[in-house]
Amino acid sequence: MTSGPNPADILGAEIRRRRTRAELTQEELGRKCGVGQTGVMMWELGHRLKTFERLVAVARALGVQPSTLVRCLDDKRTTRMDKLRKGK
């Protein structure tokens, strides 16, 4: 049994999805969050956000509540657990 994607990967994909939906470049999002383009790239690749404050800054820059970003973790975990229970 595989453990599935790690939470940082899921959160990174969600940040990327919302960033592209907001039509922001990595550099633009980084500027709004106080980091460089490389920092945003690292988040999107699944490297953890270092602080809760940074998560709040990312959420604000994307126009969502921090809970909205974190909720993606529960949604993905729930979907994965449902598949495991059903034997898929």
What does this structure look like?
The chain has 88 residues and is mainly α. The chain has one domain (7-85): 434 Repressor (Amino-terminal Domain) (Orthogonal Bundle). Helix content is 70%, strand content 0%. The chain has 5 helices and no strands. It has helices at 7-21, 26-33, 37-44, 52-62, 66-85. The N and C termini lie close together (11 Å). The mean pLDDT is 86.
Provide a compact summary of the structure:
The chain is mainly α and about 90 residues long. The protein has a single domain (about 5-85), classed as 434 Repressor (Amino-terminal Domain). It is about 70% helix and about 0% strand.
Key traits:
434 Repressor (Amino-terminal Domain); 0% strand; globular
Shape: globular
**How many separate structural domains?**
1
**Count of discrete alpha- or pi-helical segments spanning 4 or more residues:** 5
The radius of gyration computed from the alpha-carbon positions, rounded to a whole number of angstroms, is 14 Å
Ranges where pLDDT stays below 50 over 5 or more residues in a row are none
CATH homologous superfamily annotation: lambda repressor-like DNA-binding domains
Task: Report the mean per-residue pLDDT as an integer.
Answer: 86
Q: How many β strands by DSSP?
A: 0
CATH architecture: Orthogonal Bundle
Largest sheet: none
Structure classification: mainly alpha
Query: Roughly what fraction of the amino acids lie in strands?
Result: under 5%
Distance between the termini: 11 Å
- CATH topology annotation: 434 Repressor (Amino-terminal Domain)
What share of residues is helical? over 70%
What is the CATH first-level class name?
Mainly Alpha
Provide the succession of SSEs: HHHHH
